[in-house]
């Protein structure tokens, strides 16, 4: 549950980005408050939530910034990429175009985020099996090629939401703790081994599961 | 009003398989895809809520809810904060008593404009039943509607065929006041009105088009007004000198920056300790975006938001600065104890559920704040500099109106025939249900897209 507790060993800033309507806000509310809201509202600007989890015996606190998906809001939201050590780049498995746009979001990160930011590609709405438009394998291959972690989630039925956040926070923790031994209670990360990928050779939509 | 349904399907029927195979794939013709998507969205609203293909997840659970408040919002059963208090009941009785006075006053407003007495009454809250008359009048929307009769209808006809914003609008309608009875059922009447007003406006003020945040405003209007009144009220809100919300929603958000700077100045001047505290905690001013883009909708309880809208329509911009400052003032003690996390939760959730003061107390304090700011000439920021992005429209309104419907149809036909000249991979079934066909069509489209990609790779 959301913790107001100030006891933590690490503080990581993470951003949630991706096209409008892919479920970023519900992923966040599922993770921080274990709530899913069919009546949720579109995000205007940027919203914020936090939760602490335990990683290898250390308390890691995630400060998560949830951003509006509409393109013109990038003028505001991109300022929040700075200082972020992690990004969950979310698309909707039932809307192919939201997956095609992953490319543009990666470019946004390359332009505005720290070079070492850890990026996880998240295919949300995995409960919509009958409407799936993006094959899991295709996205997985794309993520591998671009050095992104990958997971499919459902904020609605909770599948993998915990895992998505835990995985990215663990990944950030590992890259940070390798570089800064023994420095407790530090904000943010810095010096992670993950780099922002170079532009991939092919746009995601061209790749296919059985190529 | 009936709109041409499924024009695209006809294009598919006519699809001629003798053309060169693989000469063009759908992804080569984004215009066609756009057109098809737009058409499919419009059709869903035309078919309404009872169509068989509305996915269950698109509708919130009705079973969970039993209580509706006087504004039309449904609440979870046993939600204590929605139980009417005695104070609340007294307030409603008082309001009902005021209605007669208001009916008289409206006559005066018609002939003489806004009197000081009327302004005072508005600060006490426009009675719920009167908002449908008073709001458009305060905005000058009523006159505009008469001056520009037919404009809305003509825009709407065109917008439904060509607006590039329909996809984003549709995404947001799905997330606009779904806890309000009027907007609860997917594709129901008011959702359709919301689509109409926003789509029409996107073709009227093309510099703003559609921006997230506008759907809440129009939905609020549609709780009280019909489509056309809501449309002109939205327009007045965007361009009238008092409100110019154009400057908030236009790409680049120039007005947001200017107002944010001013808010910091005001806070620093009148509440330096709060200002210093927020700066020290490194709390970003991002919450102002949502506060101002919807004039505090969703960020304070709905009954209070209505009171703020009453005075916002009269006073305009100064309310935005004064109320933002008023929140800091009224909650200074809490705010100066918070960390960034608790501050954000306080702003996003706590005061949205329960402001901590009665609506009347807030309005009283707000009016005091406003008077003080006005006397110090701090109620509005300095005007924009010449080099800043324009906060008002610079282009002609409703350029699409110059285009006859016939030529719009022709252009659409051109896009369709481009498609039917292109490769056709499958023969449509001879007997089919159109609704089912339309639904499956999207699926097949993507299926063949992927298949083509494989062939390309071979």
UniProtKB/TrEMBL annotation, chain A:
<keyword id="KW-0636">Prenylation</keyword>
<dbReference type="InterPro" id="IPR050209">
    <property type="entry name" value="Rab_GTPases_membrane_traffic"/>
</dbReference>
<dbReference type="GO" id="GO:0060473">
    <property type="term" value="C:cortical granule"/>
</dbReference>
<dbReference type="GO" id="GO:0006898">
    <property type="term" value="P:receptor-mediated endocytosis"/>
</dbReference>
<dbReference type="GO" id="GO:0055038">
    <property type="term" value="C:recycling endosome membrane"/>
</dbReference>
<dbReference type="GO" id="GO:0003924">
    <property type="term" value="F:GTPase activity"/>
</dbReference>
<dbReference type="InterPro" id="IPR027417">
    <property type="entry name" value="P-loop_NTPase"/>
</dbReference>
<dbReference type="GO" id="GO:0030703">
    <property type="term" value="P:eggshell formation"/>
</dbReference>
<dbReference type="GO" id="GO:0009792">
    <property type="term" value="P:embryo development ending in birth or egg hatching"/>
</dbReference>
<protein>
    <recommendedName>
        <fullName>Ras-related protein Rab-11A</fullName>
    </recommendedName>
</protein>
<comment type="similarity">
    <text>Belongs to the small GTPase superfamily. Rab family.</text>
</comment>
<dbReference type="Pfam" id="PF00071">
    <property type="entry name" value="Ras"/>
</dbReference>
<feature type="region of interest" description="Disordered">
    <location>
        <begin position="184"/>
        <end position="211"/>
    </location>
</feature>
<keyword id="KW-0449">Lipoprotein</keyword>
<dbReference type="InterPro" id="IPR001806">
    <property type="entry name" value="Small_GTPase"/>
</dbReference>
<dbReference type="GO" id="GO:0061796">
    <property type="term" value="P:membrane addition at site of mitotic cytokinesis"/>
</dbReference>
<dbReference type="InterPro" id="IPR005225">
    <property type="entry name" value="Small_GTP-bd"/>
</dbReference>
<dbReference type="GO" id="GO:0005525">
    <property type="term" value="F:GTP binding"/>
</dbReference>
<dbReference type="GO" id="GO:1990676">
    <property type="term" value="C:Golgi trans cisterna membrane"/>
</dbReference>
<keyword id="KW-0547">Nucleotide-binding</keyword>
<dbReference type="GO" id="GO:0060471">
    <property type="term" value="P:cortical granule exocytosis"/>
</dbReference>
<keyword id="KW-0342">GTP-binding</keyword>
TrEMBL record, chain B:
<dbReference type="GO" id="GO:0031267">
    <property type="term" value="F:small GTPase binding"/>
</dbReference>
<protein>
    <submittedName>
        <fullName>Rab-GAP TBC domain-containing protein</fullName>
    </submittedName>
</protein>
<feature type="domain" description="Rab-GAP TBC">
    <location>
        <begin position="125"/>
        <end position="316"/>
    </location>
</feature>
<dbReference type="InterPro" id="IPR050302">
    <property type="entry name" value="Rab_GAP_TBC_domain"/>
</dbReference>
<dbReference type="Pfam" id="PF00566">
    <property type="entry name" value="RabGAP-TBC"/>
</dbReference>
<keyword id="KW-0343">GTPase activation</keyword>
<dbReference type="GO" id="GO:0005096">
    <property type="term" value="F:GTPase activator activity"/>
</dbReference>
<dbReference type="InterPro" id="IPR000195">
    <property type="entry name" value="Rab-GAP-TBC_dom"/>
</dbReference>
<dbReference type="InterPro" id="IPR035969">
    <property type="entry name" value="Rab-GAP_TBC_sf"/>
</dbReference>
């Amino acid at each position: 549950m959301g913790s107001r507790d100030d006891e933590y060993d690490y503080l990581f800033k993470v951003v949630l980005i991706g096209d409008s309507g892919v479920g970023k806000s519900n992923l966040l509310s599922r993770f921080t408050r274990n709530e899913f809201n069919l009546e949720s509202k579109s995000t205007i600007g940027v919203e914020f939530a936090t939760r602490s989890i335990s990683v290898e015996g250390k308390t890691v606190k995630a400060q998560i910034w949830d951003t509006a998906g509409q393109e013109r809001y990038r003028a505001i939201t991109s300022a929040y990429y700075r200082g972020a050590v992690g990004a969950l780049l979310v698309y909707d498995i039932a809307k192919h175009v939201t997956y095609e746009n992953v490319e543009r979001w990666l470019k946004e990160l390359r332009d505005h985020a720290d070079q070492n930011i850890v990026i996880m590609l998240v295919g949300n709405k995995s409960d919509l099996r009958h409407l799936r438009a993006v094959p899991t394998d295709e996205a997985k291959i794309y993520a591998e090629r671009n050095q992104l972690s990958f997971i499919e989630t459902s904020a609605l039925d909770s599948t993998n939401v915990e895992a998505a956040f835990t995985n990215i926070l663990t990944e950030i923790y590992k890259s940070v703790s390798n570089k800064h031994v023994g420095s407790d209670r530090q904000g943010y990360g810095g010096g992670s081994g993950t780099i922002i990928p170079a532009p991939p050779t092919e746009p995601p939509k061209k790749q296919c599961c059985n190529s | 009003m009936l709109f041409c349904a499924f024009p695209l399907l006809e294009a598919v029927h006519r699809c001629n398989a003798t053309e060169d195979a693989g000469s063009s794939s759908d992804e080569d013709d984004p215009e066609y895809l756009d057109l098809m998507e737009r058409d499919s969205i419009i059709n869903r609203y035309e078919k309404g809520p009872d169509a068989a293909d509305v996915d269950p997840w698109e509708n919130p659970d009705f079973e969970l809810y039993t209580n509706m408040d006087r504004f039309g919002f449904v609440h979870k059963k046993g939600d204590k904060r929605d139980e009417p208090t005695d104070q609340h009941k007294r307030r409603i009785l008082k309001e009902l008593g005021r209605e007669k006075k208001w009916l008289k006053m409206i006559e005066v407003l018609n002939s003489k404009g806004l009197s000081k007495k009327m302004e005072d009454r508005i600060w006490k809250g426009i009675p719920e039943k009167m908002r449908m008359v008073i709001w458009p009048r305060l905005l000058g929307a009523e006159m505009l509607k008469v001056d520009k009769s037919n404009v809305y209808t003509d825009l709407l006809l065109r917008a439904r065929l060509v607006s590039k914003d329909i996809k984003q609008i549709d995404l947001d309608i799905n997330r606009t006041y779904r806890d309000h009875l009027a907007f609860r059922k997917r594709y129901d009447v008011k959702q359709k009105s919301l689509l109409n007003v926003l789509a029409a406006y996107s073709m009227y003020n093309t510099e703003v088009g559609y921006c997230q945040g506008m759907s809440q405003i129009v939905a609020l209007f549609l709780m009280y007004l019909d489509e056309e009144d809501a449309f002109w009220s939205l327009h007045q809100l965007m361009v009238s000198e008092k409100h110019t919300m154009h400057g908030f929603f236009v790409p680049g958000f120039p007005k947001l920056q200017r107002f944010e700077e001013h808010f910091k100045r005001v806070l620093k001047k009148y509440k330096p300790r709060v200002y210093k505290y927020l700066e020290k905690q490194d709390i970003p001013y991002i919450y102002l975006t949502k506060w101002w883009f919807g004039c505090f909708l969703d960020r304070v309880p709905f009954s209070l938001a209505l009171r703020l809208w009453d005075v916002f329509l009269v006073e305009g911009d100064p309310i935005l600065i004064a109320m933002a400052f008023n929140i800091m003032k009224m909650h200074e003690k809490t705010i100066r104890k918070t960390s960034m996390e608790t501050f954000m939760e306080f702003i996003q959730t706590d005061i949205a559920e329960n402001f901590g003061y009665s609506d009347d107390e807030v309005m009283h304090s707000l009016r005091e704040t406003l008077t003080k700011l006005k006397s110090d000439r701090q109620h509005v920021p300095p005007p924009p500099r010449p080099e800043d992005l324009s906060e008002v429209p610079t282009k002609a309104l409703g350029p699409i109106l110059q285009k006859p419907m016939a030529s719009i149809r022709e252009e659409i036909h051109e896009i369709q025939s481009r498609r039917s000249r292109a490769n056709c991979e499958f023969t449509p079934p001879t007997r089919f249900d159109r609704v089912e066909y339309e639904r499956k069509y999207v699926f097949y489209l993507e299926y063949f897209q992927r298949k083509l990609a494989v062939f390309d790779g071979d």
